[in-house]
Amino acid sequence: MNFDSFWADLLATLIGGAGLTFLFFVAKEKLFPLPDITGRWYLEITTINTAYNPYKDMTLRYVIMIWREGNVLKGSAEKIYENSSTGEREYVGENRTRATVEGYIDKNYLSKDRVYLHSLENGHGRESTNFYDLLVKSDSEMTGAFNSMVANQAGTARCQREEF
Predict the structure, then answer these.
(1) End-to-end CA distance of the chain
(2) What is the pLDDT of residues 123-133, one digit of tens each?
(3) How confident is the model over 28-42, as pLDDT tens digits?
(4) Is 99 exposed, middle or buried (0-12, 13-18, 19+ CB in 10 A)?
(5) CA-CA distance, 113 to 124, in Å (whole number)?
(6) Residue 130 belongs to what H/E stretch?
(7) Global pTM value
(8) For the ranges 21-30, 69-78, 103-112, 141-150, which has the lowest average pLDDT?
């Protein structure tokens, strides 16, 4: 066995491994970063299916504050608008219901990234649970679907940086 060849092969393997690791790091951080979704968002949901007919075609709007820790998302939300069978109204100050938001970013390298959010809203009369499955279109727009335990609701969800 030739020790000169062994050490040369070992050194080449180590340098190649370090170089490959560096290239993967640069690709992950610079070419394929996580979407920048930290900050204020406006969410609009429209109910399409529900077990309680007065909620059909209801539109709710929320303002959400999201921060990101790695791919984990945390935040809070407030309901700011409702258009339902009982009329159209904006919620201001103490009339707003608050919610806590948790979720994560599903990083996809060959397709658009997805954001999954779960919110617990301290609503009027009871606590409600909502789940959002959003496709990241850009750093300022996400679209997708929502499901809610309130009246078994499901429908569309749209999230954007600017107010509706």
Answers:
(1) 74
(2) 877 899 999 99
(3) 777 788 899 999 999
(4) buried
(5) 34
(6) strand 127-138
(7) 0.84
(8) 21-30
% of the chain surpassing 90 pLDDT: 76
**Alpha-carbon span 134 to 118, nearest angstrom:** 11
User: Which two three-digit tokens encode residue 14?
Assistant: 């180590």
The Cα–Cα gap between 67 and 141 comes to 16
How many residues would you count in the chain?
Answer: 164
Euclidean distance between CA atoms 149 and 119, whole angstroms: 11
| DSSP-based three-state secondary structure for 152 | helix
Alpha carbon distance 80, 58 (integer Å): 14
Contact 41, 73 (CB under 8 A): no
Beta bridge partners of 115: 105, 134
